[in-house]
Specification:
Elements lengths: L3 H13 L6 E8 L2 E10 L3 E8 L2 E5 L1 E2 L9 H4 L3 E14 L6 E18 L4 E2 L2 E2 L5 E23 L7 E12 L4 E8 L7 H20 L4 E12 L1
Parallel strand pairs: 5-7
Antiparallel strand pairs: 1-2, 1-13, 2-3, 3-6, 4-6, 6-7, 7-10, 8-9, 10-11, 10-12, 11-13
Length: 230
């Protein structure tokens, strides 16, 4: 995850307004993982924030089932592994100079779901032989890179000079570089066999179907946190 753009942009805004109000340091939990956040109030209605998160993984890539891998399994969360990372550079506008805020800016995200089925017996409804095919795997890269964000939220300490503050956000960001991969892995020595070639072709057909059917342009981002203003 490259955060140079976000960090440099924040530092420019941070030091360009040295005479303005205090900065705050906080931690939070977002739907893309945990973050450390630094913010600075700019005037009576605006605030700038930068958040840097750590890489996050959940679940197991490999499993064994006679059922086919389905991308819809992502929604149920029963199989596969999630990998995520997140950072953001956000501008908050407090229209009434109180807790409520409208937020816009940029997020740098990576979100991927992957699964590897070691017990598959079919692809796209067509039978495959476990004597030929070792596993079937799929990977969905929902987003990778910088994209715009818009949302709304609240911060209990916006009008405070110093002290603790609680905050929350809900919004959406545009996905970047959406990619779906689907393939069949053949057993060593079976790569040129007819059964392997048929499985590979079935995987290509299934991939084309997934690419045509599965496309996500927006993803939600929800978060809560606590900070202290110095």
């Amino acid at each position: 995850m490259k955060n140079n753009f976000l960090i440099i942009s924040f530092l420019v805004s941070f030091f360009y307004f040295p005479s303005l109000m205090a900065f705050e340091l906080g931690v939070g939990a977002r739907s893309m993982g945990q973050v450390v956040e630094v913010g600075k109030k700019l005037g009576n209605s605006f605030n700038v924030r930068i958040a840097i998160g750590s890489d996050y993984e959940s679940g197991d890539v490999e499993y064994s089932s006679s059922n086919e891998i389905e991308v819809e399994s992502v929604l149920s969360g029963d199989i596969g592994q999630w990998s995520a990372s997140h950072s953001s550079l956000l501008i908050d506008y407090h229209p009434w100079q109180g807790n409520f805020r409208l937020t816009f800016g940029f997020t740098d995200n990576a979100l991927t779901w992957s699964a590897k089925n070691n017990g598959a017996v079919s692809i796209g409804g067509y039978s495959i032989s476990q004597d030929v095919v070792d596993s079937v795997e799929v990977e969905v890269q929902f987003t990778e890179g910088v994209s715009p964000y818009i949302g709304l939220g609240w911060a209990s300490g916006f009008d405070k000079v110093k002290g603790f503050s609680f905050n929350g956000d809900i919004g959406v960001f545009a996905t970047s570089d959406f990619v779906v991969l689907f393939d069949a892995n053949c057993i060593d020595g079976q790569a040129i066999s007819a059964g392997c070639q048929e499985a590979k072709q079935d995987a290509k057909n299934e991939l084309k179907k997934l690419q045509d059917d599965e496309k996500i342009s927006l993803l939600p981002l929800v978060g809560m946190g606590v900070s202290y203003k110095f």
